[in-house]
Every structure is written in structure tokens, then in C-alpha cells.
Amino acid sequence: MVKHGQTFEEAIPPAVAYSRADGELWVIGLRGHLDPDELDSVEDATEDALLRCAGPLVFDLREVGFCDSSLLNHLLRTSRRRSVGVFGGDTTVRRLLTLTGADRLLPPHPDLESARAALSTLPRQARP
Q1: What is the pLDDT, as a whole number, of residue 13?
Q2: CA-CA distance, 32 to 64, in Å (whole number)?
Q3: How far apart are CA 71 and CA 24, in angstroms?
Q4: Tens digit of pLDDT per residue, the chain (128 long)?
Q5: Read out DSSP for 43-72?
Q6: How far apart are alpha carbons 72 and 75 in whole angstroms?
Q7: How far apart (Å, rounded) are the C-alpha atoms in residues 128 and 120?
Q8: Do the beta carbons of residue 32 and residue 4 sit within 8 Å?
Q9: How far apart are CA 93 and CA 19, in angstroms?
Q10: For the CA atoms of the chain, what is the radius of gyration?
């Protein structure tokens, strides 16, 4: 949220590139090196999205240079509350998903449209 005297750019947390509605989805773009120190802003953006949108959340990982289990755990916790998709992410991000088996719950998609298509095929009861 932009506070009095702040520009929009100053209000965006460093780990969150953007957070916006996109049709029935909410897309959160993450950036940089995501470790436990950066996770608070990601959690805040996720909570805001959960309040604003009843549809699935999609995390854009194209600008993530590093992430550890803290982001992975956040994504998994969020997927218990809402349908979650991920797209982008370099080989280290995809490797983390694969090595932990999280790719079965959060299969990485090459782009937003692929994630949208996969989430739209979920049975109605699996969606909020």
C-alpha cells in the first residue's frame, strides 16, 4: 500500500516486482535473491492477493535469481489455501522443485498462459 508522501515505486517491496489481477487469476511477480530475509514482503503480497481475489494465485519466477526452502515452503503453504501456479524460474528454481518433489504439487510452467490453462482445468471443487 502506498503511504502518504511515498511514490508507487517506493511502496513496492524489493522482492515483489508486481502484484495484480489478471482475469480470474492474481499474479505476483517475484525478483532477486529470495531467502528468509526477503520473505516478509512476499508473504504480505500473498495475503493481500488472497483478500482481493477469489481465484488462483500464480507466481512469476522469471526474475528470481535464487530461492531456498523458505520460498518453497511459502508456496506450499499457500497452495493449501488456494490453487497456486508458478511459471518462469531458472534451472536452480526448477531443480529445487524437482529435488523436493514439489513439482508434483506446483508444476513449473513456461509462461503465464500455460499456468492459466493448467489452473482452469482443475475441477471446480478444487478451486475457491
Answers
A1: 59
A2: 5
A3: 24
A4: 545 665 544 555 579 999 999 999 999 999 988 888 889 999 999 999 999 999 999 999 999 988 889 999 999 999 999 999 999 988 888 888 999 999 999 999 999 999 999 998 765 434 44
A5: HHHHHHHHHH-SS-EEEEEEEEEEE-HHHH
A6: 5
A7: 12
A8: no
A9: 20
A10: 14
Chain-centroid distance of CA 124 in Å reads 21
Residue type, 15: A
- Dihedral sign for Cα 19, 61, 34, 76, please: positive
Work out the end-to-end distance of the chain between its first and last CA atoms, rounded to an integer number of angstroms.
25
Q: Which single residue is written with the C-alpha cell 514439489?
A: 102
Q: Which grid coordinates belong to 34?
A: 529470495
Q: Residue 9: what residue type?
A: E
Which amino acid is present at 117?
A: A
Domains, the chain, in order of start with CATH, read 8-123 (3.30.750.24)
